[in-house]
TrEMBL record:
Pfam families per the UniProt record, alphabetical: Metallophos (PF00149), PPP5 (PF08321), TPR_1 (PF00515)
PANTHER family xrefs: SERINE/THREONINE-PROTEIN PHOSPHATASE 5-RELATED, SERINE_THREONINE-PROTEIN PHOSPHATASE 5
Keyword Cytoplasm: yes
Quaternary structure and interacting proteins, as annotated: Interacts with PHYA and PHYB, mostly when they are phosphorylated and in Pfr forms.
Cofactor(s) the record lists: Mn(2+)
The name this protein goes by in its record: Serine/threonine-protein phosphatase 5
Active site: H291
Membrane keyword on record: yes
UniProt catalytic activity: O-phospho-L-seryl-[protein] + H2O = L-seryl-[protein] + phosphate; O-phospho-L-threonyl-[protein] + H2O = L-threonyl-[protein] + phosphate
Organism in which the protein naturally occurs: Manihot esculenta
Keyword set, alphabetical order: Cytoplasm, Endoplasmic reticulum, Hydrolase, Manganese, Membrane, Metal-binding, Nucleus, Protein phosphatase, Repeat, TPR repeat, Transmembrane, Transmembrane helix
Amino acid sequence: MSDMEFQDSSVSRAEEIKVLANEAFKAHKYGQAIDLYTQAIELNGQNAVYWANRAIAHTKLEEYGSAIQDASKAIEIDPKYSKGYYRRGAAFLAMGKFKEALKDFQQVKKISPNDPDATKKLKECEKAVMKLKFEEAIAAPESERHSVADSIDFHNIEVEPQYSGARIEGDTVTLDFVKKMMDDFKNQNCLHKRYAFQIVLQTREMLRALPSLVDINIPDGKHFTVCGDVHGQFYDLLNIFELNGLPSEENPYLFNGDFVDRGSFSVEVILTLFAFKCMCPSAIYLSRGNHESKSMNKIYGFEGEVRSKLSETFVELFAEVFCCLPLAHVINDKVFVVHGGLFSVDGVKLSDIRAIDRFCEPPEEGLMCELLWSDPQPFPGRGPSKRGVGLSFGGDVTKKFLQENNLDLVVRSHEVKDEGFEIEHDGKLITVFSAPNYCDQMGNKGAFIQFEAPELKPNIVTFSAVPHPDVKPMAYANNFLRMFS
């Protein structure tokens, strides 16, 4: 076969593989689509379409760093290929980088001046950037900011006689109240603002008093359950309690971050978890995830949902309370539980994590950022993050961290997994994800992990999604952002 014939056969084979990749993408099998686009790229790396298509598959898996790289490559191959700019703009947008996104949408408009979709998206992006600039201009300096919590007195909020929902008598949140509230939520009824304020403010006081790294002690013969991301999927949260019992002193849980965003029942999820914390602090432990932050809540729906179901004051209040959430937990000095993962440097001790001043929005680098954002990788060492924030770390990094801190296991969440969990790094790291059929389209199972003392051997339980009312994920997100979800 001549070089020319070989080239032609590679090009046609690449096209066949692209068709298969497109089919996998349409079936929401994004990981499979990425693998197939990669094969097509290996056969013909000069086709901008393959790179741009792989970029959108990365975006669907929230691998925005990889999406930006692929879209940039598509643009490099064909500077007039509007979809390259479009896909990169969408990935920048998903990361909250509105100004970078705006530049890409301006390019799309320049290349396709008569495209009504491009015109509409550019206008919306310009509005988002203007709003951001305005918010930055009027924001008070950190030193002058007052706590919104200090200005709220829930005792003076009147409960109308016609309100028939759950009520807190006095200052004590009881199991009966929590059950009634969950039942109201299940039937799509709201909790009165007075009681919502009471729950959130009481939780804030409890969380503020905790260290950044919380030690959990499970007596011999007792058990403990760790759940991963729930992401506003309230009906799946109810199913976890159905399968594994309600949180109590005898049946304690740790929810490992990302309680909100994406799913459109985030208010119900967060108030339920907070109410259990108020009812019995040792029944439920809560870790901060990367979505317990203002920038994520602005993009992925929680802010809009809070505004719709509660009020603007609650938007500020939740942002404050999220800054009080601990960053990691250690169970019986053996199991390290964190939302994201490990660090860009060796030698990090548990005492370093305890010493983090966490009462702020997550920074873009450093230990706190890495705890919330990092992901494991299958090969040794460290690499750039697929997400564009944090890093990827190998099994050698996990092993060293565990040895240096005399620990046995890392449990983390943060990534959707087909089976709801994945065991990596020679069994030393487990990812657990508790939002089945994530975003109503991923088709994944959810999982939780049961530990029993003293062995603390992980027993993983998987479960499938349950039906929920017909409210789409991201229903409360900004219209512009929904265009890309």
